[in-house]
Each structure stands twice: as C-alpha cells, then as structure tokens.
Amino acid sequence: MKYLKQLVIILLFSFLGELLQELLPLPVPAAIYGLLLLFLALTFQIVKPESIKTVAGFLLNIMPLLFVAPGVNILSHWGILAPEIVPIITVVLLSTVIVFALSGLVTKALLGKGGMENG
C-alpha cells in the first residue's frame, strides 16, 4: 500500500501538469509543468521527500529502460531522419558544448573568482 500511495502522489503531479498544459496557452510540455509543480511542492514541504522516495528511486533506476521505445521509434523513422542527420548531430553537439560552457561560467560566478581555492 505504501508503494501505491507514493505512485499516486507522483501521478497526481503528472496529471496536474497535463491539466496546466491544456489550460495555459504556452508551448510547454506537460511533463515540465508536472516536474515544476512537484519541485515546488517538495521545496515548500507540501510533499515530504520520504513520501515519494522509494517509488521515485525505482523510477530513476529503470529510467534507461524507458528510453528504449522512443529509440526504436526513431529508428523506425530512419528514412525521414537520414537526410537531416548531419544538421541534427551538429545541433546536438553544438548545444551540448554551449551548455557545458555556460554551466561552467555560471558555477564559476556563483563560487566566486577563485572557485574552490578560496574555500
């Protein structure tokens, strides 16, 4: 029963995300709304981390398995994607480098000029 309660809490936030996506005229995925609402509920202690810890841990452990179906679906549409593979790879690599660089700069700014050397 403990696991069912934890799953219901997580699914409730997923449902609220779906509801927000329908109500708000913004191009934001429902999953983002749901995760944001869950984050806020955890931050403001509306939901205690212990109340979802076990099921959340399980979902994190099986996350790679959840990407198998979308990966197979991408491969089944290879004929459509093949002509665009070079631009897709370019954008993915470029955006990854940009995110790494910006993350480093933000971390450096937050830690101060000297970084960890001062601490």
UniProtKB/TrEMBL annotation:
Keywords: Cell membrane, Membrane, Transmembrane, Transmembrane helix
InterPro entries, sorted: LrgA/CidA
Entry's transmembrane regions: 30-47, 59-79, 85-106
UniProt GO cellular component terms: plasma membrane
One Pfam assignment: LrgA
The keyword Transmembrane helix appears for this protein: yes
Domain of life of the source: Bacteria
Keyword Cell membrane annotated: yes
Major site of localization recorded for this protein: membrane
Topology of this chain in the membrane: Multi-pass membrane protein
Compartment(s) where it occurs, according to its Swiss-Prot or TrEMBL record: Cell membrane
PANTHER family referenced in this protein's UniProt entry, alphabetically: HOLIN-LIKE PROTEIN CIDA, HOLIN-LIKE PROTEIN CIDA-RELATED
Protein name, per record: CidA/LrgA family protein
